[in-house]
Amino acid sequence: MPHPVLILTGPPGAGKSTVASLLAGRTDLGVHLESDLFFHFVRAGHVEPWKAEAQEQNTAVMGIVAVAATGYADAGYFTVIDGIISPRWFLEPLRETLRAAGHTVAYAVLRAPLEVCTARAVSREARALADTAVIEQLWREFAELGALETHVLDSNENSAMAIAPEIMRRLAEGALDV
After folding, report:
1. Cβ–Cβ < 8 Å for 19, 160
2. Element (H, E) at 96
3. For residues 9 and 109, is the Cβ–Cβ distance under 8 A?
4. How wide is the angle at C-alpha 16 spanned by C-alphas 84 and 124, nearest 5°?
5. CA angle 8, 148, 160 (to 5 degrees)
6. Which end of the chain lies in a sparser environment, N or C, as judged by fewer CB atoms within 10 Å?
7. Coil, helix or strand for 79?
8. CA 106 to CA 89: how far, in whole Å?
9. Cα 40 to Cα 137: distance, rounded to the nearest angstrom
10. 73 vs 129: CA distance, rounded Å
């Protein structure tokens, strides 16, 4: 049975990219699709994705991410989409595009305390996002997930090396399907 397309999300500094890279490397064919990179392709008219006026841009970019993920999954790759994919904004359209293409979709949220996420995000060399107010705003998108709380993994107490096999176990059980 093929792997579902995995949406691996959480706030900045939660460890998404580290875990996504580990996951994509655990299979014979694996792709770590960094959705943040797709925003950098927009040169003219770019709006920072966390701003309210970025909604139209964000919707277009996430649609393109879904098409790219579908292409990899169609080719037989275990596809991990890494990005800040809030259930309030982009989970549903991304999931529906992937489902329409015939793919099962899984959703995993990495979460650590705000102070930890902030410290990690601002200490990065690239520092693409160092504004603590924005980090907090994005962190709050994942603070209370209701029915999706069962999709949360603690990335403060657990290392990426411990989280990756836990995600694979939950994927095999269907516990992360959305």
Report:
1. yes
2. helix 91-100
3. yes
4. 95
5. 35
6. N
7. strand
8. 16
9. 21
10. 30
Q: Domains in the chain, please, with CATH?
A: 5-173 (3.40.50.300)
Dist CA 127 CA 30 (whole Å): 27
For residue 58, give Cα distances in angstroms to 102, 138, 167: 24, 14, 27
Amino acid symbol at 81: I
What's the order of all strands across the beta sheet hosting 5-9?
Answer: 30-34, 78-82, 5-9, 105-111, 152-154
Round to whole Å and give the CA distance between 90 and 93: 6
Each residue's pLDDT expressed in tens, for the chain with a length of 178 residues:
578 999 999 999 999 999 999 999 999 999 999 999 999 999 999 998 888 898 899 999 999 999 999 999 999 999 999 999 999 888 998 999 999 999 999 999 999 999 999 999 888 765 566 788 989 999 999 999 999 999 999 999 999 999 999 999 999 999 999 9
**Number of CB atoms found within 10 A of residue 45's CB:** 7
Tokens of 44: 């003219």
**Alpha-carbon span 117 to 55, nearest angstrom:** 24
Q: Which residue has the tokens 């949220």?
A: 109
